[in-house]
Design a protein that fits this description.
The chain is an all-alpha fold. It has five helices and no strands. The N and C termini lie far apart (46 Å).
Length: 132
């Protein structure tokens, strides 16, 4: 899935939104689900997505779906993605309730990153024999 193709799954998406996006994913007419990225890239993309979310081998996922076709594949992917993202979505929802905290975290992170960047630039300047 790709953000530039408007088919990405956002953490803020609901499980229903995720299901809708996955239902709209391209597949092919072959009923037997297989993992073959070279010859069946669209189907293999969905199989791989399920496998990654479940921590399984994509060939194993495909074999488990077998003759279930695109409907069964998309149901498997939807369940796998929603299950995988559930704890992340819950944590995101908690943070969304306290935007002041989020802003403080971002500011602190920016300060730390700025300090690291400044130290790196100082090292580069010294190595190059340049000064401010």
């Amino acid at each position: 899935m790709s953000k530039s193709r408007a088919n990405s799954i956002a953490l803020k998406a609901s499980s229903d939104d995720t299901a809708r996006l996955i239902r709209g994913a391209k597949t092919d007419a072959t009923r037997l689900i297989s993992y073959d990225p070279e010859h069946r890239p669209a189907v293999s993309n969905l199989v791989l997505l399920a496998a990654l979310c479940q921590g399984r081998d994509p060939h194993e996922v495909a074999a488990g779906i077998g003759e279930g076709g695109a409907f069964a594949l998309k149901a498997e992917v939807t369940d796998a993605v929603n299950t995988h993202l559930a704890p992340l979505r819950a944590r995101r929802a908690e943070y969304a309730q306290d935007m002041g905290y989020v802003r403080r975290l971002i500011a602190e992170g920016n300060e730390r990153a700025g300090a690291v960047a400044e130290a790196t630039l100082d090292e580069v300047r010294e190595a190059m024999g340049t000064f401010r």
